Every structure is written in structure tokens, then in C-alpha cells.
């Protein structure tokens, strides 16, 4: 049996959000086998998991549909009928036979978004389906084979949920054949300005409006913001910018036509501050680790922190 890496680190960046050919984007990173197997996507909200799942489906050339299901949005009482389908008369109110999400994805891809929110009881039934590759509709004992590939996504590390007893260990191992991690935008700040330019250009073309000039003040705002909403939040900021609204919304504190602190020196200070703050945060203010990462003397770090008011 062919060996497959347990985890694959993929920096999607601006390219996964553009209209470039997705096979070209990931061809050097993903083995073509990954387009045929079940996948687990891990990343914070807004990092592009939905977009990536759809593009992997398109690249896999599966003939069936891409069927997306948000596991957090379906009431637990209705989850089984939604997933597995139901036969006429299976319960009060079931007046007709209908397919569920799993059967509808026959020949295609079933995308389980926010699988970390799936109830434990339903996880056991999903595991059986993944192993048997078939379903039994509610009210029936007839086994229906299903040709599907599953892509699941999660915002929380499933291995940690397993240890907390919130996710089944056997289902985790079944889904964890290949894991693709999508990085947070704050961890790839070099992508912020190219992405923002791409989104403003697209929004301006869609709304038939000119693209406003991006001055140094806004560059500093973009680079200094933490972007908890990641690419989704950046898209919204680009749309507000084109429409003439505050870049970061009502609470962003930015105003139009500010008196700009222009010049390369001021922008370098912003970048330097961000690098130091990020290193301090990631290493929990353990200075020895920060010094090793930044490769600077302790005295220099203290001096720069004082100069930059960190």
C-alpha cells in the first residue's frame, strides 16, 4: 500500500484566493494522490478552508457534486435525517423519501465544515460510513453504496479535542490521513499588501469605482492589524476602502486623508515592531527564545523595545 504523509503544511497565501489555476498553485506541494483521498483542513476562521475544499474538488475531476454541510448549523435532532436521508413514513412528518447529504455527494465530494462541532453520537455513525462507504436511510435497512470522498475542516486541533474527550479518537485517525494546515494571515504578513491590492482591484471593477490611493497611513494600519478574521476580514476591509468607509470598520480608528507619517523609515519601524511583538507572543515572552529567533543581542532587543514603545 502506498505510503502517505500524515500531515502536509501548505502556505496558501494570496494564490489560493486568486483565480489562478489551482493545480499550478499546489502541484509542487500536494501529491496527486491527495486529490483522491479523504482530507482534513485545519485553520482559523477566514483562512480559506471553504475555497480550498472546493478547488481541491474541482482539481480532482470527480464527476459528482461538491456537497457542503456545516456541522455546527444543523440541529442534532435533525442531523441523521440530513446526513443519511429518510424513507417515507420513517417518523411522524416524513411524508416522502429523500436523499441525505451523503447520498447526494455520490461520485463527488462531501465537505464537512466545522467537523469539530459534530456531536459524539453522530461521529460514531460517520465513522461507520467512512469505513463502509455506504448508508442506510432512516426507516430502512437497505445498504446503499456511495462513492464519495470526504473533506473535513476544523478551526480547533482535533488531537487536542480527542484528549479532552470531545472528539472520537478512531474518527480522528480515520480523517487524519492527510492534514493541510492553512496559516493565519498574521503569520504571513508579506501577503497582506498584495492580497489587499488584489481585493481592492476586484471590488473596484465589480462596483465600477476608482481604486483609492493607498497612502503610508493605510499601509501601516494594514501591517499592524492582527487580522483575527484573516483573509475574509481583509476582503471586507478592501471593500470598505473602495467604498470610502473606514478601513477597519467603525472601531478601527482610521480616518480618511490623515496627516501621514511618510517615508521608508516610519514603515520600517512598523514592520520591526510587528516582528518583535509576534516573536514575544509566540514564545510567551521567553527572551532567550526571542533572541535566538531574531538573532540579535539582548541589549539591542531591550533598546528596540524601548524605542518602539513595546
Automatic annotation (TrEMBL):
UniProt xrefs under SMART domains? AAA
Q: Spell out where the chain crosses the membrane.
A: none
Keyword Transcription applies: yes
Q: Which domain of life is it from?
A: Bacteria
Note the Pfam families from the entry: AAA_lid_14, HTH_8, Sigma54_activat
Which PROSITE patterns does the UniProt entry name for this protein? SIGMA54_INTERACT_1, SIGMA54_INTERACT_2, SIGMA54_INTERACT_4
Question: Sigma-54 factor interaction domain: which residues?
Answer: 36-243
In terms of Gene3D superfamilies, this protein maps to: 1.10.8.60, Homeodomain-like, P-loop containing nucleotide triphosphate hydrolases
Q: Which InterPro entries match?
A: AAA+_ATPase, AAA_lid_NorR, Homeodomain-like_sf, HTH_Fis, P-loop_NTPase, Sigma_54_int, Sigma_54_int_dom_ATP-bd_1, Sigma_54_int_dom_ATP-bd_2
Protein name from the UniProt record: Sigma-54-dependent Fis family transcriptional regulator
Organism encoding this protein: Pseudomonas asuensis
